[in-house]
Amino acid sequence: MCRAPAVVSQAYSGQHLCAKHLDRSVRKKVGRELRKQLSINKPTTVLVAISGGKDSAVLLSMLVDLIGNRPDVRIVAGCVDEGIEGYRPPSIVAAASLCDMLGVEFITTSFDDQDFLAMDEVTASLDAILERNPEAPRLPCSYCGVFRRQGINALADMVQADVVALGHNLDDMAQTVLMNLTAGEVERSRRLAPHTDRPAEGLAPRIVPLRWIPEQEVHLVALHRNLPIHNEVCPNAEGALRWRMRDVVATLEADRPGTRHGLVRSLDAIRAMTPPSDLRTDAIGTCERCGSLSSRAVCKACEMRDLVGVK
Ligand code: SF4
Ligand SMILES: [Zn+2]
Ligand SMILES: [Zn+2]
Fold it and tell me: How far is the CA of 28 from the centre of ligand 2 (A)?
């Protein structure tokens, strides 16, 4: 596009872009996706779930660019502290300084606030948990994922968010689609964000404006914009299925550029064939223990609380 040195060579599109042009093209794609996923026709509060990492940092910065000046939009950034020593504290610092830099309101909650065990305690007692209940999930991420979802719901409640924005990039989306497909769980993929309608009464729909942006490009934009980010990987990530899927998707993409787009496009095609009205939203009630939304009598988070034996 110009004479500046390219920072990325997009095998999937054949383009070479400098940092400035990459930023511009990413912003354009995010804007297009945002308009598709979010129609603002009344005062709207957007909770942006941030982690201190590059994806949510770029998401927040793009949203501030694209809709931050609108008088009918309130953007709040929220972070869930899982209680992972060495990993979470520095990333919360990065998240806070990002919000400072962008002038965005910042709120947090922690697993402890939500009556969960801190993740470090879950990890430390995993052997004991499994001994008590051999059926219990073996990997820390299975607990963390459920608790974090509840944490994000709590943050959304705090500010009465109309919508929750998540920083999933193209690689994340492609990994999830492939993971669900290989597990035979197409239904799960159909429920993935973006939600055009409320996935359940009382729950803010999720949007994922970065869903077409490759992880590497998100990272380059974060660097180009000088966003404060914490670029470490959670010590529990290794061993998780997603970790292996990362390699699989990266290998497939290198072998045949465009694979990631293809995976996400096939999800959209499946969705188009099966309208969202088919989804079993009617089955969703409230958990008899904690009152949060659940399709079962006792919600997944309460079930996990029982497993880890907390409070
Ligand atoms: S890698 Fe697993 S344990 Fe670590 S933050 Fe993510 S979900 Fe939680
Ligand atoms: Zn250029
Ligand atoms: Zn519950």
Answer: 15
**DSSP-based three-state secondary structure for 42:** coil
Residues in the chain: 311
Residue type (1 letter), 267: L
- Condensed to tens digits (0 to 9), the pLDDT of residues 159-179 reads 999 999 999 999 999 999 999
Under a CB-based contact definition with an 8 Å cutoff, are residues 6 and 12 in contact? no
Return d(Cα 158, Cα 225) in angstroms, integer: 30
Mean pLDDT of the chain: 92
Residue at 255 is within a domain: yes
Whether 306 is in a domain gets the answer no
The answer to pTM > 0.90 is: yes
| Nearest residue (CA) to ligand 1, atom 7 | 141
144 lines ligand 1 (CB under 6 A): yes
* Token pair in block for residue 54: 């590059």
Phi-psi region of 101 (alpha: psi -120 to 50; beta: other; left: phi over 0): alpha
Tell the residue nearest (CA) to atom 3 of ligand 1: 141
Q: How many CA atoms lie within 13 A of 66 on its CB side?
A: 21
Find the 24 Cα to ligand 2 centroid distance in Å: 9
Q: How many domains does the chain have?
A: 1
- Domain hosting 151: range is 37-279
Residues by chain with Cβ below 5 Å of ion ligand 2? 1-2, 4, 18, 21
Residue indicated by tokens 């509840």 = 150
